[in-house]
Structure formats: structure tokens, C-alpha cells
Write a structure and sequence with these properties.
Length: 342
């Protein structure tokens, strides 16, 4: 059982928005589609949902053809649920009515009793019991998004498509809704495709992440692989904000441009070819003996326990690193950075 996205290309007139996307998603996986604005995330989701047809390639779900350039199973026959950034609730319908609607739209109608039991269960799962008779205008943003989630799940879809469902919520609410979505994933066992441009969301929630750039897949892997072993410069910069140290590799040793050397695990081939050692901000530290890369402090951001500093070297290349609050640097100050020894 799986979702197959086979060599999907999508063109809008002359513009190629998706180029040969080829992915196999296993039954019950939580997959995030991560990438910057305009890279084609929503277009891919809309093709899987059935709102757009691919220019070439095929979508198959459990070996059933859902879409090709001349065939498309209608949206309502794809056994999927959808949640969008805008909650898309009807202002005149109560929470309960929102949940009854998908049940009543099914080919086989259930008795009122069965319908009520299903609705009560989903209200309990999403913590909406007390709000069953409320209208959307009487609900908070988080509660409205919960209604949208409950509505997407009520017909027990095998596939849940979510397009930036948390982006309209504030930071606190985002965190609790993340847990809620993970909970829903556990309870339903549905395969979830979750579009986001927020790397922390993708890292926290997914079994695997698809990192996209300009309509292509840059890397498809577990959060640990994406964060710890980026395969391209783009993934390294986009996820984990890696510092790209210039120099050359000599086996398991990296020699910086200024001659400073440190041991490091060799990264993917493209970094070795380009003479780059990708290091995350937490892998760099200030060297008090003036050894390492000389940088000038540009700015700092306080995060409670430490500061995240931004600095530039003589070539104006940017570096990010953390330092505890007692080690205070000011803009313009010159310091040296080395790789933390493990
Ligand atoms: N119906 C359309 N007609 C023409 N171009 C389109 C259409 N839909 C999307 N595009 C273009 O396709 C590209 C990808 O859009 P898409 O919405 O898939 O990106 P995205 O990664 O989801 O971006 P965001 O994170 O900003 O939502 C964009 O350049 C967009 O302008």
C-alpha cells in the first residue's frame, strides 16, 4: 500500500513548475513537503488531490491510477481529506453541521444514530465536545483549525493532505496544534502529506521530508538525514542554516583557506568537490587563542540561554554561531571561530 508520485511534471503555459517528481510514500507515513515560497509544494498537493492534472507522469494510490495527463479520478472519489491554511469554514454552519456535511455527502447514507456517534467520537478526539453547537465566528483560530481537521478526518480518509495548516496561528497555538496533528496521525494511521516552509515543523513532525527547490526534489529522507547529512548545498543552507566553510578536504580532515585544520566527518560528494565543510551554528565556537576563521560580528539575537550571532569574514561570507550570554560580543568586534571538538 503506497502513494506513488511517478515522474510528475507540471507546466503552466511555458513555465515548468514541477519537473520529474518521483516519490514513493509508504502507507501511514507522515511526509512533509518543505521548500521556499514558489517551489511548487502546493501544485504537487493539488495534483495529488485532483484539482490539477499533471502535464506528464502518473499518481497512483494503492496501485490504482488516480491521475495522468489524460485521466483523472474526481476529487470526491479519491478517499482523501484536506486541510488548508485558511480554515475554509462556512460562517452559517455550526461545528456539528460542518462535521455532518461530509457524512451526508457520501453515497451510502448512515442512520442519524450512527452519524451522531461518528460525530461525537471525532469531537472528542479533537477536543471540540463543548463547541458542537458554536458557529465559526464564536471560535478562536486554533478551535477553527481543529474543526477543519475534524472535518477532514470524519470520513476516515486513507490520505490526509495538509497545506500549511498552522501558518495562520500564533507561536504557542502552533506548538499545541502540532501535537494534535501528531496525535491524529497516531489515531487514524492515515498517510499524511504536509506542506510547509517551516523547517522546524517538518523536522518535528515527519517520518520523512521532501525538500523541494524550483520544482525539483533536492532530497527525500528522514529528519535526521536531512538535518545531519544534507546532500546538496541548498538543503544545507535551507535546513539547519549550515555555515559553508571554504577550504579543502584531506580524508577525514578539513583544511580551511587560512590553513587552520580540523577533523570532520566527510559530507556528501558535492561539498567535497566544491571544497566546502558544512557546519551548523551549534558546531562552531569562539576560539580564545585567535586560531581559526577571523570574522567580524554583525548582529546578535537573544534566545534566553544564548545569543545567535551573525558575523562576516574578510570575503564578506556570512557565518552563524551561538555563544552563551556571559560571552558578549558587539557589532564590529573581531573574533575567531573553530569547529567544536566532539
Ligand atoms: N494556476 C496557475 N497558473 C500559472 N502559474 C501558477 C499557477 N499555480 C501556481 N503557479 C506558479 O507555480 C509556481 C509554484 O507555485 P506553488 O503555489 O505550487 O508554490 P509553493 O511552493 O506552494 O509556494 P508558497 O509556499 O508560496 O505557497 C509559482 O511560481 C506560481 O506562480
Amino acid at each position: 500500500m503506497s502513494l506513488r508520485i511517478e515522474h510528475i511534471t507540471k507546466k503552466f503555459d511555458a513555465a515548468t513548475v514541477l519537473s520529474d517528481i518521483d516519490l514513493e510514500i509508504r502507507d501511514g507515513e507522515f511526509i512533509s513537503i518543505l521548500g521556499p515560497s514558489g517551489c511548487g509544494k502546493t501544485t504537487l498537493l493539488r495534483i495529488i488531490a485532483g484539482f490539477l492534472t499533471p502535464t506528464s507522469g502518473e499518481i497512483k494510490f494503492n496501485d490504482r491510477l488516480y491521475a495522468s495527463n489524460n485521466y483523472s479520478v474526481p476529487v470526491e472519489k479519491r478517499n482523501l481529506g484536506m486541510v488548508f491554511q485558511s480554515f475554509a469554514l462556512w460562517p452559517h454552519m455550526t461545528v456539528k453541521e460542518h462535521l455532518a456535511f461530509p457524512l451526508q455527502s457520501q453515497k451510502v447514507q448512515q442512520s442519524k444514530d450512527v452519524e451522531n456517534r461518528i460525530i461525537d467520537k471525532i469531537l472528542a478526539v479533537t477536543g471540540l465536545e463543548k463547541l458542537a453547537n458554536s458557529l465559526p465566528g464564536e471560535l478562536s483560530g486554533g478551535q477553527q483549525q481543529r474543526v477543519a481537521l475534524a472535518r477532514a478526518m470524519i470520513n476516515k480518509p486513507k490520505l490526509l493532505l495538509m497545506d500549511e495548516p498552522l501558518s495562520a496561528l500564533d507561536a504557542d497555538l502552533k506548538l499545541s496544534m502540532r501535537q494534535e496533528i501528531q496525535n491524529i496521525h497516531k489515531i487514524t494511521g492515515a498517510t499524511i502529506l504536509y506542506v510547509t516552509h517551516d523547517q522546524s515543523e517538518a523536522l518535528a513532525m515527519s517520518n520523512r521530508i521532501v525538500v523541494m527547490k524550483d520544482g525539483t526534489v533536492e532530497q527525500f529522507g528522514t529528519p535526521e538525514e536531512i538535518y545531519g547529512k544534507p546532500q546538496t548545498l541548498f538543503v544545507a543552507a535551507f535546513v539547519g542554516r549550515h555555515n559553508m566553510i571554504s577550504g579543502k578536504w584531506d580524508g577525514k580532515q578539513f583544511i580551511c583557506k587560512n590553513g587552520t585544520a580540523f577533523p570532520a566527518v566527510p559530507p556528501a560528494e558535492c561539498f567535497i568537490e566544491k571544497g566546502i565543510c558544512p557546519l551548523r551554528p551549534e558546531e562552531l565556537e569562539v576560539n580564545r587563542d585567535n586560531i581559526g576563521i577571523c570574522v567580524e560580528i554583525v548582529s546578535k539575537q537573544y534566545n534566553g540561554r544564548e545569543f545567535l550571532y551573525t558575523a562576516v569574514d574578510a570575503d564578506k561570507k556570512t557565518y552563524h554561531f551561538y555563544a552563551i550570554v556571559t560571552m558578549l560580543f558587539s557589532a564590529g568586534q573581531k573574533i575567531h571561530l573553530t569547529k567544536k571538538s566532539v
